[in-house]
Write a structure and sequence with these properties.
The complex is a heterotrimer.
Chain A: H1 22-40, H2 42-64, H3 98-104, H4 106-134, H5 136-151, H6 154-165, H7 169-196, H8 199-205, H9 211-219, H10 224-248, H11 259-266, H12 276-303
Chain B: E1 9-20, E2 23-35, E3 40-44, H1 51-57, E4 66-75, E5 78-79, H2 85-94, E6 96-100, H3 103-106, H4 113-123, H5 128-141, H6 147-151, H7 160-173, E7 178-182, H8 190-207, E8 210-215, H9 218-224, E9 227-232, E10 235-241, H10 242-247, H11 252-260, H12 301-305, E11 311-312, E12 318-319, E13 351-362, E14 365-377, E15 382-386, H13 393-401, E16 411-414, E17 417-418, H14 428-433, E18 434-437, H15 441-444, H16 451-463, H17 467-480, H18 497-509, E19 515-519, H19 527-544, E20 547-551, H20 555-561, E21 564-569, E22 572-578, H21 579-583, H22 589-597, H23 637-641, E23 647-650, E24 653-655, H24 661-669
Parallel strand pairs in B: 3-8, 3-9, 6-7, 7-8, 15-20, 15-21, 18-19, 19-20
Antiparallel strand pairs in B: 1-2, 1-4, 4-5, 9-10, 10-12, 11-12, 13-14, 13-16, 16-17, 21-22, 22-24, 23-24
Chain C: H1 2-8, H2 14-19, H3 25-35, H4 41-53, H5 67-102, H6 107-121, H7 124-138, H8 154-189, H9 191-198, H10 203-240, H11 246-255, H12 259-287, H13 289-297
Helix pairs in contact in C: 5-6, 5-8, 5-10, 5-11, 6-8, 7-8, 7-10, 8-10, 9-10, 10-11, 10-12, 11-12, 12-13
Classes of the chains: A mainly alpha, B alpha/beta, C mainly alpha.
Chain lengths: 305, 685, 298
């Protein structure tokens, strides 16, 4: 059925002649259009706003909080105080201010998650491009490895790796990045497989272009949409994984004010009615994750039209 | 008016709009037409003119952003506009059916054919057993030879032609007052299309159903319809008896469309095709005057300001043109005559392929896509390659280009020296020498690159052009394909189909190639654009002396452009010779069938050869002559046992058939024989 | 295999991990000698693989018992929890996804899609602490531990498992709903759905007979692949609810660097995943005529 919605024919309105390099101009126009669409989405804006607050906390955390998140020797005197005007979120078992810890706690998780996702995306995109473009043996072998990775749940895989390598932020980044890479590779590969069937790829081969040129200059720009979407999706999962691993004791180590760690330290006293040292970091994790999902939702709507 | 005497369909001042970004954009503008009982009405127009919207509007099934703004739709006397949802459903269940393009998608992949067809009877209130019985009966009526077997199958187990029969059976099962056919044969092979069209014509007689036939293909409409309407930008611009409209068109758009078609006998070295300048107005554009003004060579002041009325010209013929009596004087956009100097052949072929073969391994089967093909292409000529799907046309092109590696023993020579089988191993001169123009310019151009970048890259890679020199070459190239240099910064998505194809052609010509493969270069384009592209290809050949390997399923186009023609069937070369020799008897029986399958816009009734059955699978080709299972001139056992050699039957005319050429000449002078062995289509599994 | 390679890198001192930081180095060495953990990792791994091939998973270092004795009861417990979660989430997830698809782009769709996505992305231990807080501490309607008393009846067991299962449900819901939604939307847009409408079938019949049949196929396949994920989620859940399942076992084994136990438990998870995927494949091909017939004919 004809869906003549997006037919825009410019030929009757020729573009004014512009100097060289207007290809970049084109790209800018396309980017602007996407930004405009994004700025219209209320859910995206809400997500971006919340995410922005967390980023702010991560950068300026210490400067804005009322207490030292790592506590001071006298804190123990006011342990487990309920939320009040002096301690908005109350204090924990060591008397540290929960509010300050929640605010500053945004840093580790954001930094580690962004670095891990970036690593995973770059690796995954490269693997996906190569396997999707060459297919054949390289593809078979790499996809078997991906399957093997997928057979073991991320948390268990990371647990084993972190126990083996010893928990540190760098290990966390590397382990999560490497675990993500094949998953991202699979998505990118699927996009590349359909892209490489298009004739522009054959046209490039008919100019005797080298494979790296075809992969990175011709195909890559056409698969950025799934890569961007995949990045935001994985960012959410990275937070998920880091929080869980830290909660289990294999991630960020004390005395960092990391949220997962705070919950780990305090959930056992939930039954005693001390809910605040657990609730607020839990809400922080939930809010961060939801904000990322709202952003993902907005981005995938715009990119996958 | 009672249902018994009411017309099957009456549209009165129908206005349909799509809402795009909050604005209503009219798609159909005041369409009024009526189809009498038992009549067959054809609606023609190019893509984007609103044909399909018309069809779906009158099923009251529009996309969510589409709405009928005003007007009236009456089917068998019942007004749809004021009808309740239940009423519409009831109408769909009993009075009106629709068949559309791509039957494979129209059938539910996970339900047995029998159940899908039976459903139609069940809606009408039949019991399960009754429904199955009637399903069996209706499948027989659409000439399915073993209905019981087909009923137990799933759609993907049937060929495209069979699927479309099932869809037609489903449509006719309710014995509707009106049958809507929306491009029902687009995408099917020529011989299969002919069968489906024959079937529709036959069943129309039997069921007495009125038909609303929608197509972009003028020849198909001419063959199938008694009356036609021509739709342009959502407006009905001309209407009348098919015969009258096609022979005595009175609207400049119709006149232009008919001139665009390469009709039998037109040749590139004598005739240039006419084309329609400009583009279809944008969706929902404000058109105060005549909708065709911007593209009309006859347009005057009044045309821009006042919408013409639908002038009645007698005999039901009407034209929405102020100057309908002058329509046929529409000035040509190009001179009709052209002089092409006869090319000098020095005897050395530019391409010489010997024993070309390609076997694909698929799921444990060996599929012979191409089998022992030997052919020469002479410098400066166009070799047309015709054949249905699975004939190996595209495989041959890919082998030639080095995109696919041929089987051992295949030889390709370019100007006397052997070509490496894979492109990566070829010298840069060889790479430059062989280029291609693909069918679908959307896929062939990288959508993230500007036109400038696309062509520049080809210039850099193929001829090593840089800086100033490259800029000059770019401009020359754009000029030679009549591409406005001001558009060089645009991206493909901003260009129309015809402009995109020009960019693709420019890219192919960037390295001054010796041979350009044209793989269905106009199949994705509208008729008016097709003509302009064909003219361009002919001009480029005249100016640059390039050689074409021209692949197309459209015999009219092939005939117009080709000097010689090769006919392929199931990977075998069946016939090759000068274009006019191949097009006139004696031909190979397959060529004969192919030619007779294609309807002509001139409406001449050629004797029809009907092919039986389906195109066999290349994974399991028939023994002996691969065509024997469908051959209308089947001789006997020899055809099944022995593969005939490719023999030179006349000077430069080769054929692969056991029947002696003189015998063929005699046979083909007479009307074709009735179908000898069982006239029903066979199922394939 | 990957997991084993990763596990090779285990540098930890097993004896030290078992005896604690204050034990004398001599006792640690002695224990390592007894356990064989002073040998090279490759030798240990070789031993373990050799054992597995003969059906022997080896002995746990930390619990001094055959690994098999620890694994099977734990697996049984985890399976109970997982099953309960699945029984709840599969119908709800599919229903939610289909409901969203039928109103694509409208409010209902947005709420289900974004809500589901968010629920999926919030770690299960966060759901767990929130759940314990609300249902266990404030409302006091559900137990905050998953381990039912000995000899508990079926319903009591379900009551104890409900809260941990719900945490898994939250995490799985979004995923399943998203698949069901995507499949349904694709199917709604398909030509064959149009054919069904144009046959004059009422909307309900079209959706039931033509849309869902095709849209739920991929969802079923995806549900099974989530089994593997589920076991990952069990680690945190079982820890919080103090439930003696496979997840808790893996957690303890990892903490104490109990090499044979960790490897074996991971192996079991891998096998469970493979079996689930296999079942999904079989189910998918049984329900999908394209695959079923293709394989029976060739």
């Amino acid at each position: 059925m004809s869906r003549p919605e997006e037919q825009v024919v410019l030929a009757e309105h020729p573009l004014p002649e512009t100097p060289r390099g207007e290809g970049d101009e084109e790209a800018r126009v396309a980017r602007r259009e996407r930004l405009r669409l994004l700025s219209r989405s209320k859910t995206f804006l809400a997500g971006a706003l919340v995410f922005g607050v967390f980023v702010f906390c991560a950068i300026f955390g210490e400067a804005v909080v009322p207490y030292d998140p790592l506590g001071s020797p006298t804190d123990i005197l006011n342990k487990l105080e309920a939320p009040s005007s002096s301690h908005y979120f109350g204090t924990d078992q060591l008397g540290r201010d929960v509010f300050s810890r929640v605010v500053v706690g945004a840093r580790d998780i954001l930094v580690v998650a962004l670095a891990a996702t970036l690593l995973g995306t770059v690796l995954g995109a490269a693997i996906g491009l190569v396997t999707g473009y060459f297919r054949g043996l390289v593809d078979d072998v790499l996809m078997r490895i991906v399957d093997a990775f997928l057979a073991i749940p991320l948390v268990i895989l990371a647990t084993v790796a972190l126990v083996a390598l010893g928990p540190s932020k760098v290990t966390l980044v590397v382990v999560i990045g490497i675990v993500f890479a094949p998953i991202i590779a699979r998505t990118v590969r699927a996009a590349v497989l359909s892209e490489r069937e298009l004739e522009y790829v054959q046209a490039a081969r008919l100019r005797n272009e080298h494979a790296p040129y075809i992969m990175f200059a011709e195909i890559l720009p056409n698969v950025t949409a799934p890569i961007v979407v995949e990045f935001t999706v994985r960012l959410g999962y990275a937070i998920f994984a880091i929080a869980t691993l830290t909660f289990l004791g294999f991630g960020v180590q004390p005395p960092s004010p990391d949220w997962g760690l705070q919950i780990k330290e305090n959930y056992v006293i939930l039954n005693g009615g001390y809910w605040w040292p657990t609730l607020f970091p839990a809400l922080a994790i939930a809010a961060l994750v939801i904000s990322i999902n709202l952003i993902t939702d907005g981005i995938s709507r715009v990119f996958e039209r | 008016m009672t249902a018994a005497t009411a017309p099957a369909l009456e549209l009165d001042d129908l206005n349909v709009a799509y809402t795009v970004r909050g604005i209503d954009r009219p798609v159909l503008r005041g369409v009024t037409l009526s189809i009498a009982q038992g009549e067959s009405y054809g609606l023609v127009g190019e893509s984007g003119c609103g044909k399909s919207t018309a069809a779906f509007a009158l099923m009251r099934y529009l996309p969510r952003n589409g709405k009928i703004q005003s007007g009236s739709i009456r089917i068998a006397g019942q007004e749809l506009m004021s009808m309740s949802e239940d009423g519409v459903r009831n109408l769909r269940a009993t009075q009106v059916s629709m068949v559309y393009q791509n039957p494979g998608a129209a059938l539910n992949p996970s339900i047995h054919i029998g159940d899908q067809v039976a459903e139609v009877f069940e809606i009408a209130g039949g019991s399960g057993a009754q429904a199955r019985e009637r399903t069996h009966e209706i499948l027989g009526k659409v000439q399915i030879s073993d209905p019981a077997r087909v009923m137990r199958r799933y759609p993907h187990q049937l060929s495209g032609g069979m699927q479309q029969r099932v869809v037609i059976a489903m449509a006719l099962a309710k014995d509707p007052a009106l049958l809507i056919l929306d491009e029902p044969t687009t995408g099917l092979d020529a011989t299969v299309e002919a069968e489906v069209l024959d079937l529709v014509a036959l069943l129309r007689g039997e069921f007495g159903t009125s038909v609303f036939f929608i197509s972009h293909n003028l020849a198909v409409i001419r063959r199938m319809c008694e009356r036609v309407g021509v739709l342009y930008a959502g407006r009905l611009v001309e209407e009348g008896q098919a015969e009258t409209v096609f022979t005595d068109p009175r609207h400049p758009y119709t006149v232009g469309l008919l001139r665009c078609i390469p009709k039998g006998g037109l040749r590139k070295d004598v005739h240039r095709l006419d084309s329609i300048p400009g583009f279809l107005p944008q969706l929902g554009a404000d058109l105060p005057g005549c909708v065709f003004t911007d593209r009309c060579g006859l347009a005057r002041e009044i045309c821009r300001e006042h919408e013409p009325e639908f002038h009645q010209l007698g005999g039901g013929h009407a034209s929405r043109c102020h100057f309908h009596d002058e329509a046929q004087t529409l000035p040509r956009t190009t001179p009709s005559h052209t002089e092409v100097p006869k090319r000098e052949s020095n005897g050395v072929p530019v391409v010489k392929a010997e024993h070309m073969a390609k076997t694909f391994h698929q799921e444990g089967h060996d599929v012979r896509a191409l089998d022992d093909l030997s052919i020469e292409i002479r410098p400066g000529e166009t070799l047309g390659l015709v054949g249905e799907s699975g004939s190996g046309k595209t495989t041959f092109a890919r082998l030639l280009l080095g995109l696919t590696e041929p089987d051992q023993g295949s030889i390709v020579e370019l100007e006397g020296h052997p070509l490496a089988p894979r492109i990566a191993k070829r010298s840069s001169d060889d790479v430059r020498a062989l280029q291609i123009v693909f069918q679908n310019p959307d896929a062939a151009l990288n959508r993230r690159f500007s036109v400038r970048r696309i062509i520049n890259r080809a210039l850099t890679k193929l001829v090593g052009a840089k800086g100033e020199g490259r800029d000059t070459r770019l401009r020359e190239l754009a000029h030679s394909v009549r591409f406005d240099v001001r558009l060089l910064g645009a991206r493909p998505a901003q260009l129309s189909g015809g402009l995109k194809q020009r960019v693709a052609i420019a890219r192919a010509f960037a390295g001054e190639p010796l041979v350009v493969v044209c793989d269905e270069p106009t199949s994705a384009l509208d008729v008016s654009v097709q003509a302009a592209i064909l003219n361009l290809l002919a001009d480029l050949q005249r100016d640059k002396g390039v050689t074409y390997l021209f692949i197309s399923h459209d015999l009219g186009v092939v005939r117009y452009l080709s000097d010689r023609i090769a006919v392929l069937y199931l990977g075998r070369l069946m016939e090759v010779g000068d274009a006019e020799t191949v097009f006139s008897a004696p031909h190979h029986p397959y060529t004969e069938a192919l030619l007779s399958a294609v309807p002509s816009v001139e409406g001449e009734e050629r004797p029809r050869i009907r092919l039986e059955g389906e195109i066999p699978s290349a994974a399991d080709p028939p023994s002996g002559c691969v065509f024997h299972t469908r051959c209308p001139r089947y001789l006997g056992a020899i055809c099944e046992e022995q593969e005939p050699p490719l023999a030179e039957v006349e000077r430069g005319h080769f054929m692969r058939c056991h029947i002696p050429v003189d015998e063929l000449r005699r046979l083909q002078a007479e009307p074709p024989p009735p179908r000898a062995r069982g006239s029903q289509a066979k199922t394939t599994s | 295999m990957i997991i084993f390679v990763a596990a090779q890198l285990l540098p930890g001192d097993v004896g030290r991990a078992i005896l604690g930081p204050f034990a004398a180095q001599s006792s640690v060495d002695q224990l390592n000698e007894e356990l064989g953990t002073n040998r090279s990792i490759v030798v240990q791994y070789g031993d373990w693989v050799g054992g597995v091939l003969q059906g022997d998973l080896g002995d746990s270092y930390a619990f001094s018992r055959p690994v098999g004795d620890l694994l099977w009861p734990a697996l049984k417990n985890s399976a109970k929890l997982a099953l309960l979660a699945f029984v709840i989430v599969v119908p709800i997830g599919i229903l939610g996804g289909v409901a969203a698809a039928l109103k694509e782009g409208r409010l209902r769709d947005r709420v289900i899609s974004i809500g589901g996505l968010s629920a999926t992305a919030i770690p299960e231990f966060v759901w767990a602490v929130l759940g314990i807080m609300i249902f266990g501490v404030w409302l006091g309607v559900l137990p905050t531990t998953a381990q039912a008393p000995q000899d508990a009846g079926f319903f009591t067991q379900v009551k104890y498992l409900l809260l941990p299962a719900l945490c898994l449900v939250f995490v799985l819901f979004g995923y399943i709903a998203r698949m069901a939604r995507a499949g349904t939307i694709e199917s709604l847009d398909a030509d064959y759905t149009r054919t069904a409408y144009l046959k004059g079938l009422p909307r309900r019949t079209v959706i039931r007979r033509h849309v869902l049949r095709n849209s739920l196929l991929p969802t079923i396949a995806v549900v099974a692949t989530q089994v593997g994920y589920l076991f990952g989620g069990l680690v945190a859940i079982e820890l919080i609810f103090n439930y003696n399942g496979l997840g808790q076992l893996i957690y303890r084994a990892a903490q104490r660097q109990d090499f044979p136990l960790l490897l074996s438990a991971t192996l079991v998870v891998g096998v469970v995943y493979l079996v689930a995927t296999l079942i999904a494949d079989v189910l998918y091909s049984l329900l999908n005529p394209r695959i079923r017939l293709a394989s029976s004919e060739s």
